[in-house]
Design brief:
- The protein has two helices and seven strands; from the N terminus they run ββββββααβ.
- It is mostly beta strands.
- It has one domain.
- A hairpin with a 2-residue loop joins strand 4 and strand 5.
- The longest helix has 7 residues, at 67-73.
- InterPro entries: DUF7724.
Length: 94
């Protein structure tokens, strides 16, 4: 896995999964099988992402990802996990 800044998380997709990586934590969750890739992170707000995404046979569109309920379902301490993250970037090489 590619080294990133201590306060930067990575967002990418693989097949029908979204992948969120921060430090040594890799969180995968189901997404549309039509998702080709995320193209831009427009906003990061303590667990809430606004991103641009490209879907098969559709124009690029704005999407919203709320990580808080996902982290809660995985029994993460949400505040502790999210607090150090200052930036999220897309990196399909990570």
């Amino acid at each position: 896995m590619k080294k990133t800044a201590d306060n930067c998380a990575i967002l990418k997709s693989d097949s029908q999964y979204t992948i969120f990586i921060f430090k040594d934590q890799v969180i995968r969750f189901a997404t549309s099988s039509k998702l080709e890739r995320y193209t831009e992170v427009k906003e990061w707000d303590k667990g809430y992402l606004v991103v641009m995404a490209k879907y098969k046979n559709l124009n690029e569109m704005e999407e919203y990802i709320d990580l808080i309920p996902i982290l809660q379902n995985l029994y993460y301490d949400v505040d502790e996990f999210l607090a150090p993250i200052k930036e999220v970037r897309i990196d399909y090489a990570a």
